[in-house]
Amino acid sequence: MLWKTSCLVPVPKKSRPSDPAEYRPVALTSHVMKVLERLVLAQLRPQVRKFLDPLQFAYQPHLGVDDAVIYLLQRALYAFGWWRRH
After folding, report:
1. According to the lineage, what is the superkingdom (predicted)?
2. 21-40: average pLDDT
């Protein structure tokens, strides 16, 4: 089952780490495993979507930090009544 294994590679957080805590583990997986994960995700995402919070911006297709910031700014401007004055 070689396709199920992954190789953990320590990647330094700093340019010259002096402590083992200054490394982050990165798992390198095989291409077969990545394709399998995407196939499973494609089947699970429609089933789970109805249970997700509408304000879930992370790990969603076509949504990201920009969308979260725009939503937050829009809510703040409405709360302070900026849209009604201008």
Report:
1. Eukaryota
2. 90
Burial state string for 24-61 with b = 16 or more CB within 10 A and e = fewer than 16: eeeeeeeeeeeeeeeeeeeeeeeeeeeeeeeeeeeeee
What is the Cα–Cα distance from 5 to 28, expressed in whole angstroms?
9
Beta-carbon contacts of 6 under 8 Å, excluding residues fewer than 6 positions away, are 27, 28, 29, 30, 33
Which phi and psi angles does 48 have, rounded to 5°?
A: -90, -20
Is the pLDDT at 85 greater than 80, yes or no? no
